[in-house]
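Chapter review: from sequence to fold.
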Amino acid sequence: MNMTSSKHSNIAIFVPHNGCPHQCSFCNQKEITGQSFQPHGEDVIKAVEIARKSLGEKTQNAEIAFFGGSFTAIDREYMKELLDAASPYVRSGEFYGIRLSTRPDAIDEEILDILKNSGVTSVELGAQSMDDRVLNMNQRGHTSEDVRKSSELIKSYGFSLGLQMMTGLYGSNDQTDIRTAEALAALKPETVRIYPTVVMKGTQLFELYQSGEYKPHTLESAVVLCAFLLRYFEEREISVIRLGLHDSESLRGNMAAGVFHPALRELCESRIIFENTLDLLKEKNIGNGRVEFYIHPRSVSRFIGQKRSNLQALARLGVEAVIRQDEALDKYEVRIS
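The token string follows.
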């Protein structure tokens, strides 16, 4: 079980690699989640009961979430068993709803009727890419059109739509990933998750990496791209609820290459602020000297950068940064005195 720390909480129950008819090039769900155990109804109840004690009254903002596999593609009776265990907590009003993730080609009206009657509130689709060539190269087994049709159907039922994308996949590049973001934004989801590709041992992608046919992003290049995507979605009022894989011992022990950092989102937000700072210096025609920068208090650490990287970069440009705080500013906003 995993609970998020924000105002909205997920009681996350992992159903690892269950229901998926394909072995995608990058996928090793057991090692990503560190879990091979398949939960049953009593396990769902146990997890929710623990969350009740931990969250107290905050359960009304919490969703019981089934992640890790292709939930609507698993055995129908098993799917109903899990939903039946969770739904009484939603019907009673104690929990806000049920969230699940699934494949774009595992959605139809019959399934959505079941989900609606079980108290499901949010459905996330693992789109990963909207480029059919990239999807085929990574053996996803669905098309970009499947993503579009399923998204429209999910929204027509009144569910909150979430879409997941991966950057740096085999066969993709930055422009392909940006086009994917544009295509996903056009579907008007409420939420998005961005996952830079991690090369896990025991996958086809690992073999491609070993042979030199696949070259993963560096952390630096992924931060540049993901900072752009984060800003792109937020400007369209689409909430990015996850950026990068969750940290776990299993993930660290089984990843061979690719992009993972426990504070990837913070790195990306720091990058956005730094770019805004450079734009402002250029606009004000300031080339060097002592400069007072005003930042929102919660953004000071991001302005400074990890290991003071942003301050050091400014110093190399000849700018001595003096930080002032201003609560009236937005989280990415920088002002010069």
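Two observations follow directly from the output. Residues 1-6 have pLDDT under 50 and may be disordered. The chain has two domains: 2-262, 269-336.
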